[in-house]
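Handout for the seminar on molecular recognition.
Each group receives one record of this type.
Step one: identify the two inputs.
Step two: read the structure output and locate the region that could contact magnesium ion.
Step three: write two sentences on what you found, then compare them with the reference statements printed after the record.
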Amino acid sequence: MAELFAGKEIFTVGDLLRFYPSGYECFEEETEAARAEAGAFCTLRLKITGPASTFRKGSRTITHVDAADRSGRVRLTFFNMPYVRQTLGTGGPFVFRGILRKTGAGSLFMEQPWFADEARYEKLKGTLQPQYPVIRGIGPDRMRGLLKAALESVEGMRDPLPQKMRDRVRLLSRHEALTGIHFPKDRLILEQARRRLIFEEFFSFIVGMRRQKLEEGERLNPDPMTDRPEWVSQLLGSLPYALTAGQAQAWEEIRADLTGPVLMNRLLQGDVGSGKTIMAFLALVLTAQNGRQGALMAPTEVLARQHMEDFCSCMEKSGLPVRAVLLTGSVKGKARREALARIENGGAHVVIGTHALFQEAVRFHDLGLVVTDEQHRFGVRQRTGLAEKGEDVPVLVMSATPIPRTLAIVLYGDLQVSSLRELPPGRTPIQSLALPDTQRGRAYKFILSQIRQGRQCYVICPAVEEGEIQEIENVADYTEKLRASLPEDLRIASLTGRMSPMEKTSVMDRFAAGDADLLVSTTVIEVGINVPNATVILIENAERFGLSQLHQLRGRVGRGTAKSYCIFLYSGKEKPQRLCVLEKNADGFSIAEQDLKTRGPGDLFGVRQSGMPQFALADLYEDADLLKEASVCADEILREDPSFRYDGERRVDLSTI
Ligand code: ADP
Ligand code: MG
């Protein structure tokens, strides 16, 4: 038995009690056969009216039993269960549960029903019986018996939540809650039990997080920067625009962090195109004026190069003496050695790069700031990896996948959050349209009309995964097809994930310079590319992408002043719900909420790598109210008693029950 349980990671009584039912079976009143709805699940109380007949058909045995109640007859059929003949005999009544069907001739029958004798059913009636995820070798009745025993063995268990708090938040005791979730007397109790257990999941998580912070203490900024406004003002003065109110506030927050006593650990979130890059540049410039180095890390080589170009052009226009080096996987040989040397001797003030930045060989002269762009692409481990290059380095994390604030507190408990909620002025909203792929021709026509007006377009076809080549258009094939259906003079470029970073960059450069009208690509262009003249993005197989990813892709257009369009093509008859959300919704914050609802936070953030907690019952989105309540309670308790620890574990060996 222990072995069977081990397969589900159940080792102790506690583990078993937390093996929550996946659903409940409700044993309702019996109905009369003639009144039951054919085709529906129903419960009948029937007497057996004649001896069963069993015969073989192929490899199975089929047993027919004739039964009836006052209202009519029902034929029961069992497969490979010849012994029901003895069990049922000619007695009864028994209670049968299953789907009642009608033959063409109008007689009723039920296949493979569940059944119990009258007395047993009387006991079950009106109760909710737990159903557990299947553990091979332990049947449902045995499982229920074991859980009853487990519950009895911990009667009078200590409750890790203080009584005072339970009273105030109106929570069941732990034993009541565990009993309620496994063997609920009714739906009300079940609801209360869930509430208590969800609260406890949140509470223990938050207390743990706060404890860690208390024990580590607030990390102090070992070397606050001097708040010197000159270079920052000079950069701001050279921009062709003024900061939006949101940007101005975010910069205030970042500046205060860098020059203040507490070490910066800030998340800057804002929709695609909300202007996060300039925030990073300001922070890097302030760092440089303080004589220290800053690192800016991007998730892709293409994006790193683009940041490098933007940064250098900003420095040129503003005349600031800040020198940057690029360090990515494709910077090799002599160039790499030189870059590394300049990072180490302090000749470079700003280092822009990809993951390569973390690699062993990189030693900073005096690292004073780490900025990571498009954070949701990195795991938390990588984030800290770079921060560890220097001791206690301020960190700014930028993300275009905005998350609701309540969630940010849980997901990144240790982060401060700044949000850019508005886009810079002068942008016309992107018009989005989802079409079945049978209307591809219409979409192409539209693209052509935009190109004839001097605009450029993106077409996204999904990356080719192994074994899927027949199903999905691969970039090369797709490009050929596209060429065939559009006039010959169109200049079509294509980009795939398999190209080397150099090749990718050269294709992107060509497109950015306007030397191609159409760029066919996989999702490698998802992040950060900025071509203001591109006004249409067509996304093939849109049903294969998640909400956030589609929103990100859409953000590739709408970057200039001209009106932009996003066309989602989906295969299949029905328009996926996600696409309806995107058609109606342009705001990343509310899309993120929707994404959370439909996919759960796991997919959105790549949970496993980012170390987000997995809750057994709680749903971060649905139970957001309880999350807040638990967070307030945790804070109060720790204030009253800083030594408070949540201790929900009592290890009882399974073999004792
Ligand atoms: P993201 O937040 O997606 O990284 P970017 O930083 O790439 O967005 O900004 C998108 C575009 O908006 C860039 O071309 C940038 O120059 C421009 N931009 C940024 N801030 C402003 C502003 N306050 N007013 C006008 N344009 C701005
Ligand atoms: Mg960006």
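Reference statements: DSSP finds 23 helices and 22 strands in the chain. The radius of gyration is 32 Å.
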